[in-house]
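Researcher: Please generate the 3D structure of the following complex. Treat every line as part of one assembly.
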Amino acid sequence: MTEKERIELAELLFPNIKKTREYYEEKYPERNLPDGAMVTRYGPSPTGSVHLGNLFSAFCDMVYAKQSNGVFFLRIEDTDQKRAVEGGIENITGVLKGFDITPNEGYTFGGEYGPYKQSERTEIYQTYIKDLIIKGYAYPCFMTEEEQNNIKEEQAINKTKIGIYGMYAVDRDLSLEEIKEKLENKEEYVIRLKSPGNPNKQIEVVDCIKGKMKFPEHDMDTVLLKKDGTPTYHFAHVIDDHLMHTTHVIRGDEWVSSLPLHIELFEILGFTPPKYAHIAPITIKDQETGAIRKLSKRKDPWAGAKFYEESGIPIEALHLYLATIANTNFEEWYLNNQDKTINDFTFSFDKQAIGGTSFDEAKLNNLCKTYFSRKSGEEVYNETLIYTEKFDKDYNKLLKENKDDMIQFLSIEKDGPRPRKDIAKYSDVKEEFSYAIDSMFEKEFYSKYEGDKVYDVDLITEYINNINLDTTNEEWFNQTKEFAVKHGYAEKPKDYKKNPDSYKGHVGDICEAARVMITGRTKSPDLFSIMKILGKDRIKERIELYKKYSNR
RNA sequence: GGCCUGUUGGUGAAGUGGCUUAACACACUGCCCUCUCAAGGCAGCAUUCACGGAUUCGAAUUCCGUACAGGCUACCA
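Model: Done. Output below.
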């Protein structure tokens, strides 16, 4: 076909496209950003659900853009109407917001480079396709599904590469007359790339994470525009990321095999390609089969985004976990920098895992504990209030009624270099601090205490009457030891162990008895702190309660 | 079938030819500290980097094969 014929063809195919590529190039000029600023994007398709992998990639996008004073935008990739789910887009924006992953541009976030929804960009894609047809890099293909399947079957038998390329791309060299005829017969068509690639040549691509990769040049006549005039992912990606001036395409590594195509498209269109960073998928070892697989929402509760909110895992702790799988040196850094937050850490692609990252629930749990240990009692109180507001209204009410007490209890052993690490989620607070609220304690006391040991109520009553709570922890313990000795108990557990016949027990036994009566359990944070907060009157009430229980 | 990518302990991993008798963290086990728990301290946990060959004075690190895993091979993203 001559150029003149190609122009005629382009007009025939896209009579309504009046704008030119120059128009768009001018409309979306270079971004005015400081040196080194990264422009990243998250491009979900609105299939409704968001899972950890999506969240992870969006997290990376955000973090790299943020630390370089760049732009992180949200683009809805809804070129496939079949996959669209009602409310899917709202769900995505909702989840992002819930997880504190906020784009600073894009769909529902505004910006100069929109529209940020691919279904609203059809005219743009078609403008560039029209141009490609004129240049001879694209052509209409009228092959039916059946014809294509036949070719694939034949290729499978001959054990050659499967697809539409070279000699198999029969509509490549259709004459203008032939095309006109098919159009008049109302034959349906797609627009395919007329790939100039030579598969015997190698191309080398440098990925920010994976490093150098070699591929044969792309030579498939890949579909660019579908029958309905909408673009395929590949074409939309190239056009959008060029016009929106994305500098770094951060995406899942299921895309690496289409890299040669994307590079080829950028070249043909005369665009400079962005840098690519392909991130490893989050995997898990299947409990039943032992096989390594991708996270599955059906089998793994933690794959779905909702799980974290419902079970009370703090968003910030999840960010911490995402950061540790994003950059392998983050974990150690965070541990050694008690006073720093994620925002103080500089992420880099070469510290990003290359192979699949296995989801580690135990590590997440530990990270959550560390997170809570660094929060003050008041902060934990306030955050738990927000959580229970939504997921445990009854407890929320109790928390509000017992605010001052709760904050004091939550603050026990928080000072110093080794703060307690006993809660991992907001939902743990209720259980861990069951002894904190009197009205709840009564109920909990009976159901939770399962020991069969019966403690001496009179002894502990006397003990409580005798000690002074208005003192220091050290002084309190001295008093306790004195009391123990007076009643025939050893001052130190070791003494008792050496001569068990000489004593009734040791100081720890006194504490244990008091602890059970006061908290309803054999394990608790520092007993003295708890006693001090409760005060003698409430302690005595609890001893009465214990009496009732043990005589039952 | 073809084309890519990956494979270091129970887990996440550090490691870019000699400083590695393979870091660190999580998990687990034991001991210590201790009024219980949590935390913390110490110690243990891969004689070896999927396997086989090659290059080299020297390889977890380079090259070639094999196995396994994952991805792509759609008018899905």
